[in-house]
Structure formats: C-alpha cells, structure tokens
UniProtKB/TrEMBL annotation:
One Pfam family named in its UniProt record: Flg_hook
Name listed for the protein in its UniProt record: Flagellar hook-length control protein FliK
Signal peptide location: none
Lineage: superkingdom: Bacteria
Entry keyword annotation includes Cytoplasm: no
Record flagged with keyword S-adenosyl-L-methionine: no
Alphabetized InterPro entries for the sequence: Flagellar_hook_control-like_C, FliK-like_C_sf
Coiled coil: 476-503
Record domain Flagellar hook-length control protein-like C-terminal: where: 430-502
Keywords: Cell projection, Cilium, Coiled coil, Flagellum
Length: 527
C-alpha cells in the first residue's frame, strides 16, 4: 500500500463518480469488480481527473478533491446500460518512493504532456502500483508523446535525479517498423523499371545517371540464359536480397548486384535533381527564406512522396506533379504580367524574343525535373520491393514457429524489354523424424507471347509434383501439348513424377506483405 486509506461514506456526494463517455466504452473493469487506481492529474471536486486504472488512462469526475499520486479504490456499479464507478476509499498522497536507489533502471510510460515543458510519467515497479512522476524536460532536445515507453535510470534520490532513454526494440519490432515504412512504396505487381531503361538514350547530358542506368541494365541477365541451372543460381545470388551478406565478405564484388546498382542509380538521380533545381530554377521575386525552403524540398525527392495521397491525386488530376507545382512557384508565376523569373534577372530592355527564350528554358527545366522525379520514383519502388523481401525473410527466420519462406524478384532482359521472374521457396516440416524435408517452389513468369504463367513445384526426396497455371487459354493448350516433354525432362533428372497438371486461372503475383494478428497500423475508431 502507498498510504492509509480513508473510507468514503456510500451515501455521500463523494461516492458519485462519473465516467466520460469515451472512457466508458473501454472501461477495464467488469460489473461489481473492485480495483485500485492512481490519480495522474489533480483536480477539485467535480472537475475532470485522469486516473490510471488497470493499465489504462480513464477520465472521471469525483465528488472529492484528488491530488496527483493518490491511490483510490473503485468499484464498477453500472446503472442500466450506462457504465458507472463508485469511489470506496482514498489514500493519502504518497511521498516519492524511498526505495529507489542510484543505478536502478525502471520502465515508465509517458502519461501526459504538461505545461512549462514538463511531462508526467507512470513509473512501473514490480509488484506495486505505478507511481506518477513529473519531470522537467526543458533542457532536453528530445520530443515525447503520450503512450511512449521510456527507461528511467535513477542517478540520485536526494534530490531525485534521473536519466531518460528509449528502450531498445526487439528484432521483430524493428522489422515491423521497417516494413511499415516501406509499405507505401511496395506494389502488388513487380516494380516497373521499363521507363528507366527506355530513358537511356535521352540521358546523354547526364553522364552519372546514364552510366548508372547502363550498369544496371548490362548486369541484368538475358531471359534465355537462366534456363541453365548455374546461370539461374547466379541470377538469384545477384537479385539484391543477398547484398548485405556479400558486404561482410572481404573485397566483395558488387557490380552485378541488382540492389547495389539500384542504390547507385538512386544516388545519381538525386544528384542530378539537385543540380537541375539549383541551376535552372531560382525565383528572384520570392523571399530568400521561402525560395531556399522550396529548393531544399526539391532537393529531397523522397519528401515529395510523403504528401498525403489525396493531395497528390488532386495535383495529378490537375495535370501537375508535386515537383511541377514547386517549380511553378519558384518560377515566379505570381509576378506582374505573368512574366517567368529564371535564375537570370530580366531587365526592362528584354525583348519579347528574349522573354520567349527564357520561358522556354524554364519549361525545359520543369520538364526535366518532372522526368527525373518519375524515374527516381520507379527506382525507389524497386528498392522498396527488394528491401521488403529481405525483411520478410529475416523475420520469418527469426520465428522458429513459422515455416521458412524465401521470396525474390529476378529482373531479366528480353531484347530491350525488362521481364520479371518471381521465385518463392518454402521449406515444409516433417511428419516423422525419418522423413525427408518437403519443399514447395512457386515460379511466376510474365512473358510477351504467353502472358502470365505460374509453376507450383512440390519436392520430397526424389518425388516431384508440378502444377502449371496460365491466364491465356491458348497458352494452356500449348502447355498441355508439350507436357510429356516436361515429364521426360524430369525423368532424366532421376525424379519420380507423382503428378503433372495444367489449368487456366488468374495468376496473382506474390506479395511480400504479411498479415499480422497484432498491428498498430490498424485503428479501432469509435464514433
């Protein structure tokens, strides 16, 4: 106990406790249950007071004055369909815990942001109720929010002095956080990099970008070559999902790695965007701080992708990308007479021909920036897809109760077109200790002539089963005509064919997004 309890007469005004409508919906007590709570914000009789009850913050109105740190005893006593609490007893205000010792570290939760740059913490102690603790954070540069978990290290207790730090996330929490960050960039289909490849002849004046695109394209394998097992294995190794493992090796050779080349291309595009924004767009009629802020925003392409979707959609519906809108502002479209202001100030002697030339120069800069932004968006989407695949594989391996799954997207060259092959390997369990491991392999391929294809392959020991799926009925008929050839190829590998089938159905591209039972990306909103 934190102090002596004072019994409250049940017939007095003090016994009446009103629960706010919002709190009553999630009241953490069953009817008739008695529990202790800690007052976390003081208030006079009849005023709103926050209490911590069964791990939740509940706002109530009591008929007595309550002070921060007091422990109260409540009983749920509903009246009809309306939740209600009865105040049974109130303890005296406890002093600061005397059992805190220097060097001790306790878990605490931020309950409330207080005026005068202070925060209210709920200090957790083993086997005891949480203790409210008000701290002055005026000398700290960190920001805090209600519900945030902190570690409180006791430096001294006379006077009380503490140090705050954020608890280290578990590997699972880190993975979920990174997945949530990448989720807006990941599409259900493989990333479309064809625009990046097609832009190669138009990048003559952008040597770093041109070199990065050339290196990316030249290191993507031809579609026909992956029919050989050794080439397919090398394509898997260079798909990007094993980049970080290769970095740990001495003197790694990364020129052929897909993710490494994407990172180089993204850096080259960002550098070209900065050069274009600073060199061709510089409004003279804007205040310097506004002009600088807008240019800095253009220099951070990723920031433009973080705009709310409804704003981006509205801009696109009007024919403008966020980059085009900013460049329009920087161009000084609001100046007198609609004259466009570029990085060279126009004198009053400028002829209409000169003004037209300057307008054309600006429009060329806007077009170039917009094109670079589109290319960078495609590259960032491809990177996000690779990283999401990597995180999913690490997360699966970190959980021994789940089956191991490897998912990777292999870019392939088909003449001047970029094609994708998707491979998923899944290791199954054993029914008996003496059984061989079961493997399930899914291969997705999108071709120009046959459309989308899927092969689902099951393998245990030397027994194999294959199910082929195609979206085009003509492709299904062609596969059925040649299915005996597949049977012969498998038999030549000393495999016993258990089942071969082919059917027509939609082929969905496998997604790296996973469904989790507990996700704080979902909100339960009551109206």
């Amino acid at each position: 106990m934190l102090g002596e309890f004072m019994q409250i007469p049940q017939t007095s005004q003090a016994a009446q406790v009103t629960v706010t409508e919002t709190a009553s919906r999630t009241l953490p007590l069953s009817p008739g249950q008695v529990a202790q709570a800690v007052v976390v914000s003081a208030g006079k009789a009849g005023e709103n007071v926050d209490i911590q009850l069964a791990g939740k913050i509940v706002t109530i109105q009591a008929g007595v004055d309550l002070q921060r740190g007091q422990t109260i005893e409540l009983q749920r006593s509903d009246s009809g369909d309306k939740a209600a609490l009865k105040l049974i007893s109130v303890a005296a205000v406890p002093p600061i815990p005397t059992d805190l010792r220097p060097g001790q570290t306790l878990l605490a939760e931020v309950v409330k942001l207080l005026p005068q740059q202070s925060i209210l913490l709920a200090l957790q102690q083993t086997g005891k109720l949480s203790v409210p603790l008000e701290l002055d954070i005026s000398r700290l540069s960190s920001s805090f929010k209600p519900g945030q978990q902190l570690l409180v290290q006791i430096l001294s207790n006379s006077p009380l002095s503490v140090a705050l730090q954020t608890p280290n996330q578990t590997s699972s929490e880190t993975m979920v956080s990174q997945q949530r960050r990448l989720m807006p960039m990941v599409l259900a289909q493989p990333p479309q990099l064809q625009n990046v490849i097609n832009a190669l002849p138009e990048l003559k004046n952008m040597v770093p970008v041109q070199n990065a695109v050339s290196q990316l394209w030249q290191n993507i394998r031809e579609l026909q070559t992956v029919q050989q097992p050794a080439n397919l294995q090398q394509a898997i190794q260079q798909s990007g999902v094993f980049l970080e493992r290769q970095l740990l090796q001495p003197n790694p050779s990364l020129t052929g790695d897909f993710k490494a080349n994407l990172l180089k291309l993204a850096a080259a595009l960002e550098g070209q965007i900065r050069q274009t924004a600073n060199g061709q767009i510089n409004a003279q009629n804007l205040p310097p701080e506004i002009r600088t802020a807008l240019i800095n925003l253009l220099n951070q392409p990723a920031a433009l992708q973080q705009l709310p979707s409804h704003i981006t959609n509205a801009l696109l519906a009007g024919g403008q990308t966020p980059a085009q809108l900013l460049t329009t502002l920087l161009a000084g479209q609001g100046s007198v007479g609609g004259t466009v202001t570029t990085n060279q100030p126009m004198s009053s002697a400028n002829t209409p021909v000169q003004q037209i030339a300057q307008n054309a120069q600006f429009q060329a800069g806007v077009t170039e920036l917009a094109r670079l932004q589109v290319l960078l968006r495609e590259v960032e989407t491809a990177l996000a897809r690779v990283q999401m695949n990597q995180l999913n594989m690490v997360r699966e391996a970190d959980s021994p109760t789940q089956q191991q799954v490897w998912l990777m997207d292999l870019p392939l060259r088909d003449k001047q077109q970029l094609q994708w092959m998707q491979l998923q390997f899944q290791q199954g369990g054993k029914q008996n200790q003496q059984d061989e491991e079961q493997w399930q392999v899914t291969l997705n391929l999108e071709t120009q002539n046959l459309g989308k294809l899927r092969a689902s392959i099951g393998l245990q020991s030397s027994v194999v089963s294959v199910a082929l799926t195609a979206e085009d009925p003509i492709a299904v008929a062609l596969l059925e005509e040649n299915i005996d050839l597949l049977r012969e190829k498998l038999a030549a590998l000393d495999l016993q064919v258990q089942q071969l089938s082919c059917h027509c159905a939609p082929v969905k591209w496998l997604t790296p997004l996973t469904q989790t039972a507990n996700s704080d990306a979902l909100l339960d909103i009551s109206v």
